Amino acid sequence: MQKLYLRYCTSLTALSCLSTSLQNLSLYGSCNVERLNLNVSLPNLHTLNLSGCTKLKVSPEALVTSAPSLRVLDLTGWSSLKSLDCEGLPCMQWLDLRYCTSLTALSCLSTSLQILSLYGSCNVERLNLNMSLPNLHTLNLSGCTKLKVNPEALVTSAPSLRELDLTGWSSLKSLDCEGLSCLQQLYLSGCTALTTLSCLSTSLHTLALEDCCNLERLNLNVSLSNLQKLSLSGARHWISADFVTAIFTTFMKGSISSSLKRVFKKSTPLCVDHRKPHGQVEDKEHS
Q1: Distance of CA 230 to the CA centre of its chain
Q2: Which Gene3D superfamilies does the UniProt record give (predicted)?
Q3: What single-letter DSSP state applies at residue 245?
Q4: How far apart are CA 161 and CA 133, in angstroms?
Q5: Core vs surface per residue 236-269: b (16+ CB within 10 A) or e
Q6: Which alpha helices (DSSP H) does the chain contain, by range?
Q7: What are 212-271's pLDDT values in tens digits?
Q8: Rg, C-alpha atoms of the chain
Q9: Residue 80: CB partners within 8 Å, gap ≥ 6?
Q10: What is the pTM of this model?
Q11: Domain boundaries, given as residue ranges, for the chain
C-alpha cells in the first residue's frame, strides 16, 4: 500500500496497521477519527493530510518521529494545536496550518520549505525566522495579528518569496520590499496603519491595498510592467486622479483618458484588473 485516501469518511474513528511502504495518506474531512496508529515507522510517507481531523489524539511529536520524510503536512483546523516543532522534518516543503487558532509558536522550519500558510491562526506569536528559508516562495500570514515578526526579518530570511499575504496586519506601519526581487503577489488589505510602501518588485503582478486608509507614500519610481491586478477598495481618503494616472502610466506604459480620471476619482471601491492572455493561477491542491 502506497496511497490511501479516506477523505470525508465521517464515521471513521480509528485507523491501524499502516504499511511501512505508505507514501500518501489523506484523512481530509474525516472529522471523527480519534486514533491513528503511529507506533510503526513510516519512512516513505511524504504526504499527510489531516485537515479537519480535530478529534485525532496524536501529538505533533509523534507525527515528526514516525514520518521523518514528510514533504507535505496539512493540519488545517487543528484548533487545539498549541505549538509545532518541525525539527526532524528536513524534507518539509509544504506546511499548511490554517485556522490553528490555539497555535502560538512555530519553530525549526526546514530550509527546504516552499509553502507556509498560517491563514487565520490568530494567536501565533512566535515564528522562528533566525535561519534562512531560501526556497520559501509562498507565505500566508493573513490574520496573524499577534505575530511578533518585523517585516525586515521576513525579507531577509525569505529572499525568494513570490507571494506574501499580510492581510489584516493592522499594526504594520511600513513595508520595504527591497530584497524581494521575485515577488509577484502582495496582499496588504486591512493594513490600516500602513503609511509607506516602497521598493516594489518589477515582477509584481497582483497588489491588494484594500482598506489601507492611511497609506501616504507608494513608491512608483520603478516600472510595474507586469502588474495585472490592483485593488484599492476603501482607499477613498487618499486616492486621487493623479495617483490613478501614475498607476496606469507606470504599469500600462500608456495614458489615461480624462473621462476615466473622473470615474476613478469619484468612485470607490476601485479594482483594476489588467489581465494578460493565458494567465494562470497556481494550483495548490495537494491532497
Answers
A1: 18
A2: Ribonuclease Inhibitor (3.80.10.10)
A3: H
A4: 9
A5: eebbebebbbebbebbeeeebeeeebeebeeeee
A6: 60-66, 151-157, 241-252, 258-266
A7: 988 877 766 667 778 888 888 876 555 556 666 666 665 554 333 333 333 333 334 444
A8: 22
A9: 54, 102
A10: 0.84
A11: 1-54, 71-161, 171-277
Distance CA 208, CA 190 (A): 9
Helix/strand/coil percentages in the chain, nearest 5: 10, 20, 70
For 36-61, the pLDDT digits (tens) are 987 678 999 999 999 999 999 888 88
- What secondary structure letter does DSSP report for 50? -
CB 30 within 8 A of CB 12: yes
- Dihedral sign for Cα atoms in the order 141, 144, 145, 151: negative
E strands, 77-129, where? 83-85, 94-96, 105-107, 115-117, 126-127
Q: CB burial class (10 A; 0-12, 13-18, 19+) of residue 179? A: middle
- Non-local (6+) Cβ contacts of 43 within 8 A are 20, 67, 68, 69
Cell of 40: 510503526
SS3 of 198, please?
Answer: strand
* Distance of alpha carbon 117 from alpha carbon 96, whole angstroms: 5
Beta bridge partners of 217: 196
**How many CA atoms lie less than 13 Å away from 41 in the CB half-sphere?**
5
Q: Which three cell numbers stand for residue 176?
A: 520595504
